[in-house]
C-alpha cells in the first residue's frame, strides 16, 4: 500500500499521466506518482502505465541504482528516492567510468528479464551524487524471460540508446564493436519510427501539449 502520512517537499513533474513529487515521512524521502488529478479520459492509460511501472520495479527489487517500489494502491505509486541529477543536468562528458558502470547496470536489468524501453530520454538516466549512473521511470518497461527473443531484442535497443549517449558525451571511447552496433538498426526500431513515433509526437505535442523535448530536458 502507498504511504499515508507524508508531506510534499517538492513537485518534480506534472503531466497528463499524473503528478510526481518528492515526499517525506517518518522513514525519510521518497517519490510519489499520484493519479488523483488525471483527466477522466486519460485515467485508464495513466493507471496502466503506473501499474506497468510497479511491475517493472518489482522485477528489479534489491538492485542498486534503480528505485525500489514502496507501495502501489491503484492511485498512488511510491518509490525510493535516488539522490542525483538527470543526465542533461549533469552531463558525464568524457566520463568513461560512468558509461562502463551504466552498461553493467543495464546488463543487470536485462538478466532480471526487464527491458526499460525508454532510455533514449536523458531524463531517465541519472548521475548520482557519487558520479555513478542510475535509471528511473519504468512506465514502459517490458518483463519476460531474459532468454526470450523479444526481450533480447528490446535489451539490444536499450544498449543502443546508451551508446547514443556515450557517442554524445564520450565519443572518443566508443569501441569498434559499439560503433557497428550503433549502425545496425533493428526492424523494431524502424517500425517505431515509421508508425509509433509520428503517433507519439502527435499525442504528446498536439493533444497533451508536452514541451520537454521528449524527456531530454527543457527546450532552449
Automatic annotation (TrEMBL):
Entry keyword annotation includes Transferase: yes
NCBIfam families reported for this sequence? PRK12274.1 (NF008910)
The lineage's top-level taxon is Bacteria
Output this protein's name. Serine/threonine protein kinase
Q: Which UniProt keywords apply?
A: Kinase, Serine/threonine-protein kinase, Transferase
**One of the record's GO molecular function terms:** protein serine/threonine kinase activity
Amino acid at each position: 500500500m502507498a504511504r499515508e502520512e507524508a508531506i510534499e517537499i517538492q513537485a518534480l513533474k506534472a503531466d497528463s499521466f499524473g503528478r510526481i513529487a518528492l515526499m517525506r515521512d517518518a522513514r525519510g524521502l521518497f517519490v510519489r506518482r499520484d493519479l488523483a488529478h488525471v483527466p477522466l479520459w486519460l485515467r485508464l492509460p495513466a493507471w496502466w502505465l503506473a501499474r506497468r511501472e510497479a511491475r517493472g520495479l518489482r522485477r528489479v527489487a534489491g538492485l542498486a541504482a534503480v528505485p525500489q517500489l514502496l507501495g502501489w494502491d491503484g492511485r498512488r505509486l511510491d518509490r525510493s528516492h535516488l539522490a542525483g541529477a538527470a543526465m542533461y543536468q549533469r552531463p558525464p562528458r568524457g566520463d568513461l567510468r560512468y558509461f562502463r558502470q551504466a552498461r553493467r547496470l543495464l546488463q543487470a536489468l536485462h538478466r532480471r528479464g526487464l527491458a526499460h524501453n525508454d532510455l533514449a530520454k536523458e531524463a531517465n538516466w541519472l548521475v548520482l551524487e557519487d558520479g555513478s549512473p542510475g535509471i528511473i521511470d519504468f512506465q514502459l518497461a517490458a518483463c519476460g524471460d531474459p532468454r526470450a527473443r523479444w526481450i533480447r531484442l528490446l535489451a539490444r535497443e536499450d544498449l543502443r540508446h546508451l551508446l547514443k549517449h556515450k557517442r554524445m558525451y564520450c565519443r572518443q571511447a566508443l569501441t569498434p564493436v559499439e560503433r557497428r552496433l550503433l549502425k545496425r538498426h533493428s526492424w523494431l526500431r524502424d517500425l517505431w519510427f515509421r508508425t509509433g513515433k509520428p503517433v507519439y509526437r502527435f499525442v504528446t505535442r498536439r493533444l497533451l501539449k508536452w514541451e520537454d523535448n521528449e524527456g531530454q530536458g527543457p527546450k532552449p
